[in-house]
Amino acid sequence: MTRATGVGSMPGTTDADHAEATRLVLGELSDLAHVPEVPGRGVTAGMIGRGLAVVDGLGADLQPAGWRLTDADGVDHRRARSLLAQDLDTVEEQAQDYAGAFKTQVVGPWTLAATVEKPRGDKVLSDHGARRDLAQALAEGVRAHLADLQRRIRGVERWIVQVDEPSLAAVVGGRVPTASGFGRHRTVDLPEASAHLEWLVAAVEEAGGEAWVHSCAAQTPWSLVAGTGARGLSADLDTLGPADLDTFAEALESGRTAALGVVPSTDPTGEASEVRTTERVQRWLEMLGLDPDAVGEHLVVTPACGLAGATPGWAGRAVRLSAAVARNL
Question: Phi/psi class of residue 122: alpha, beta or left (left: φ > 0; alpha: ψ in -120 to 50)?
Answer without folding.
Answer: left
